[in-house]
Amino acid sequence: MNDVRLHYIEKGQGKPLVLLHGNGESSDYFEHQIAYFSKDYRVIAVDTRGHGQSPRGEKPFNIKQFAEDLNGFLDEMSHPKAIILGFSDGGNIALEFALKHPERVEKLVLNGANLFPNGVKPRYQWPIVLGYHIAKCFAKKSEGAKKNAEMLALMVNEPHIEPSELARLTMPVLVVAGTKDMIKESHTRLIYKSLPDAQMNLIEGDHFIANKNPEAFNKVVERFLKK
Question: What are phi and psi of 201, to 5 degrees?
């Protein structure tokens, strides 16, 4: 049972397509996907615990808890099964959820996900680590710093998924990333190669392709979903 009610945006009818945003973001990130996919699916863009309009609650603030929040959320929505599309930390939540509750995932789209922190290119990870340590120093004196430290900790300390674990995910998976992504291309390929039924696409752009290059991103995802 969730200790918080997750905020969400819902549009369209049909099979549920759940959208999970990245670190420090909200469901607003998917402004170019919600309307587009709602013509064929019941699109549900969720704000993760402590993000957007969803309250923080008292439970742990980590990827595994967010995955359990999603499980409770699908129960509340009476959806036994859904297509899950996760971006960045949302992709990591989607992976944790699929590993724990594979029977609830029809198809999986992983956009800019990583299995462990050093899947991120060092030039992006170092400033995150530095920011985390600075925020942690001020966390006892400032509520804002405490919240910032908790948010950055998600990228510094998580996730922890062994590539061998992905062999258990038998549902179709689309692994997608930007050509100039902050996730190492070798790491994206590792995720792809570790999955039994996966395809991989690199789309022109950086980490935020769904938002910055939505036309290309939406077409790739749509092709995968309709296959």
Answer: -135, 135
